[in-house]
# Entry
Amino acid sequence: MKTKRLVTFFPKKSLSSSQKLMGGFALIILLSALLLHLPLSSASGQATPMLDCLFTATSATCVTGLVTLDTGTHWSTFGKTVILLCIQLGGIGFMGFATFFFLLIGKKIRLKSRLTLQESYNLARPGGIVRITKHILLFTLITELLGIICSMFTFVPQFGIKSGITISVFHTIAAFCNAGFDIFGNYASLTGYVSNPFIQIVTMLLIIIGGLGFFVMEDIFIYRKQFRALSFHTKLVLSTTLILIVVGAGVFFIFEYRNPATLAPLSISDKIVGAFFNSVSPRTAGFNSLNMAALSNGGSLIVILLMFVGGSPGSTAGGIKTTTLAVLLITVHSWIRGKDNIELFRRKISHQHLKKSVAIFVFTSLLIMAAIFILSFTETASLGDITFEVFSAFGTVGLTKGLTPHLTAVGKVVILLCMFIGRLGPLTIALALSRDIHTPQGHYTYPEGEILLG
# Structure
């Protein structure tokens, strides 16, 4: 009796899951950059500078949307196809596609590859990971197909059947994968649809679904009629996401209501839709229906904060994640009330989760400050524009105040690294570069030291 050969996607020499993920993403970026460097990738038929190709490939694979060259006018059909494939690979994860391919040809997946999948999708346990991967790919296909059909109602009448379908496919995949790429030309994004609530709502739904996380969506589908039966993680993600959307839209509406360059000229209904759109999109999608350079200081600040938080774990989104923010805020609330335990929804949050949340918050904050510091020397833009750009890159958002096309060579490299670290997560990068992640801990504790805080 023949047995199916076990398949692993990596060499037998031991590499950690974090190192495999980092190496896999880096390889996709490099290969994509080489393809974009080919003369047939540009509309002019001329080879594009390698640094711009590397920047674009990184932005697409890390589902960001920051571009040094206009996607709609600079790249040929072949170049746009490469970018779209990068977005899809980056959003779903190359490990997911590799798993699906080997399952199609009847190969079983080895434990090491399952552990890498677990790391890729940020799961607590590797159990059922292959089944979950199948569900992720099927869910992605169905959601994107529905998004394409809905988008066609707007784009086909405007651009014709062929161009309308092309734009609908590109826009839907970019929206679901939370990548702010558009092919309208001249860095337009959705500014031409600020008074079109339908396409804004469709885009928002795709962004939200992609940013919630695949496992949250599966949990909702299984227990859609019983909220109490939902997992603690799903409840935490849904409640945090809802608060961020509503509060973000409300604050944005207040600051931009009288701004003549943003919401002021619009009708009240368009103002409301615009406020919600610009509360949803900054949480790593990167589409804009308003001119970001014209935002008020308050509007810019709320967008920066939303970019910093991002989406949820196991999704196509970046940022520190909604659950990280929730754990930190719940901890502060518990401390103020004098509680020893961190509790919500009749569940206790472990101190291990708290330590990881603090590490993510501090590590990300330090990296952002370092990037802002470097760009302050290399770029001639204002500190506000630089700060906006860095937060957008780390959150894999794609919004800009117009700085990206004018970055220096050093600036492009810094933003490129920000996007790469932001997509994989600072802790994943740290673990991949660490040599002592398997060092066992001693069975002892030191006496507590007294310090003053506050």
